[in-house]
Amino acid sequence: MTDHDLGWALATSDEGARTVHPVTREGLPLLMERLGPATSAFLEGSGFRAEAGRVALLPGESGLAGAVLGLGPSATSPWSYGALPFALPENTSWQMGEGGDAAAATLGWMLGAYRFTRHKAAPRLPARLVLPSGDAPGLREARVLAEAVLRARDLINLPAADLGPAELSDAARNLAGRCGAEFEEISGDALSQGFPAVAAVGGGSHRAPRVALIRWEGAADAPLVALCGKGVCFDTGGLDLKTPEGMKRMKKDMGGAALMLGLAEALMRLRAPIRLLVAIGAVENAVSSHAIRPLDVLRTRAGLTVEVGNTDAEGRLVLADLLSFASEQQPALILDAATLTGAARVALGPDLPALFTNNETVASALSAAGEACHDPLWRLPLHEGYASWLDSSAADLNNVGSRPMAGAIVAALFLRRFVPDRIPWAHLDVYAWNDTGRPGRPEGGEAMGLRALHAGLMTLLPVWASH
């Protein structure tokens, strides 16, 4: 599901294309010399210092001759290039000059050109990028990753009236169809029996809950990677009702599912040498006579019972069943993503997803990959000392901690109970939203962490092969 022809920001030919000269601070003197004294004097007079994302239009005898893009200290960050689609004149075509990075430019341009247009037309069209000829390193990967991020953004930006559990499941079905994967949807009695916590959380809504499963055999005898996504299409908080302000952006509470679907798309389209299982718990946490109540005791797929300390801590209940199902398949790695806690945002702000993992190799690979591809993650601890905060006198555990502290850690500790210690597992607590627009990152839904997870998985493959 997407509102875009994903090539809308790319030119089909180089006819009439002008040149953007990307330049780092270090490379600015050489570029000035190459452009000649008149252009050099113009740039110097306008105060251009190659700051990241700064764009200067260059005049010529017949009007606009070209442009210069500042890259700051690095040519490989996509965010500098993300300024170009709307900083350059509308409906014009551009090609990259020397000094930049073709893959980063393509990624940044496509991410920066994105606008959500389902219910409001974009105020203007972006400028278009001419892709370099030949097989530039990383170019296809950059485009596929950009397209995966844009599809995830579209899903997150859709209002809950447009995207309920059925529609989110359909998005998984469509992805499987595009990529030659198997799809299965579990609902009704089969859901109540096999995924009882998912069924309980979604039971308060007239829009029935379901689990969407994608299976992809990328390579025979390859390691199995399981991706689990929280797909709460709208979260009222349930009977422990959120405030109006707290409920305002809860259409994005399926951001973890969108992130996992986007990651799955990238892995399948780039033919990663793995086998893949994707599990999406698609529910709506609504208020009704069928909604779960505080102090209810729920059964989970793992056989553990959970006392509902707060109906607004529903995402971890959905993930509990998904993680149990994924663990049964004996994967080499389980990744889950969820817009799980406000505590993670208090600790790390909106831009940094909180990473929790039971495996040091996985932690190192994902953290390093995030830094390298400018999609950072920040590891928080699975502090054992807080595990007892989940104790319950009525059930095997509570779904919230007994103290109003360390909420993101306690939530991760809850999830850990549903993954055997022997299986490497990583959990991402994401915001999935840009509060304000920045180059490459317009206001609205965001698939933060997607590129980091993809790059991290690629670095883990040789580790698995050596074992």
Automatic annotation (TrEMBL):
Protease found in the keyword field: yes
A GO MF label: manganese ion binding
Primary enzyme class: hydrolase
Gene3D superfamilies: Leucine Aminopeptidase, subunit E, domain 1, Zn peptidases
Cellular component, GO annotation: cytoplasm
Every Cytosol aminopeptidase domain range: 310-317
Keyword entries, A-Z: Aminopeptidase, Hydrolase, Manganese, Protease
SUPFAM superfamilies, per the entry: Zn-dependent exopeptidases
Biological processes annotated in GO: proteolysis
Protein name in UniProt: Leucyl aminopeptidase
Organism in which the protein naturally occurs: Muricoccus pecuniae
